[in-house]
Amino acid sequence: MTDTAPFRSHVQAIEDLRGPTGRLEALLNTGRSNARYAAVVAHPHPLGGGTMHNKVVYHTAKAFSSFGLPVLRFNFRGTGLSEGAHNDGQGEVEDVRAAVDWLAARYALPILFAGFSFGSYVGLRACCGDARVRGLIGLGLPVRAAGRDYTYEFLSGCRPVPKLFVSGDHDEFSPRGVLEAVLVGASEPKRIVWVEDADHFFAGNSQSPASKLDVMSGAIRTWLADEFEL
User: Fold this and answer.
1) Is there a domain that residue 145 lies in?
2) N or C: which end of the chain has fewer CB atoms below 10 A?
3) Relative orientation angle of helices 91-107 and 118-127, to the nearest 10 degrees
4) Coil, helix or strand at residue 71
């Protein structure tokens, strides 16, 4: 198991992560020297204001970092200081692959991937067949958002690595019944967690207005501890 002594991660700006269209702005949360995995986290749709500083992305990175894992967050092409232009989810798949390549070269560790919303869609597509990726997390998988449809037939062909799917039970972009039907086809092993009274962004509703981000990140921590003995 990972050392449980107090650990404080440091955040570094990464200057040498490059995708097909140029430099990708990125931040690295450093990990313990004896970390057994490294993690990549991908952000929501850039045209909706998504960046690596999104609250869900930040809390997800913290969940990984709490186990002493190095964690890479990055901005997709055309977002923030990343070079290039938005490519409607096609080129962004290659951006995720570039991030995985960079992290694997830096640490020579197995990779865990997590993405939120659009980031989950393109990241799962990039990582499902990658033998270096040993665990997959999809947060708030969208089915239909801002006039865009998202399909997940590829999940049936994912490698048999642990998968975690976390969504709010009031997600406006993925009604629970619709997403349940989608996830039936995802390959095993998988765990599905529904966060009660949470919307797409893991905020509360009129019945339970408090943020649900702690519940979401708690589900990630529990899964990491169970599946990877962290």
Assistant:
1) yes
2) N
3) 60
4) strand
Joined tokens for residue 113: 């991937």
**Runs of H (alpha helix) within the chain:** 55-65, 91-107, 118-127, 176-184, 213-228
Contact 7, 44 (CB under 8 A): no
CATH code, 108: 3.40.50.1820
Distance CA 90, CA 92 (A): 5
Partners of 144 in the β-ladder: 149
pLDDT tens-digit readout, 8-33: 779 999 999 999 999 999 999 999 99
- Count structural domains, the chain: 1
Mean pLDDT of 24-52: 97
DSSP symbols for 4-41: -S-----EEEES--EETTEE--EEEE---TT-S-EEEE
**CA 165, CA 219: separation in Å to the nearest integer?**
10
pLDDT confidence of residue 6? 58
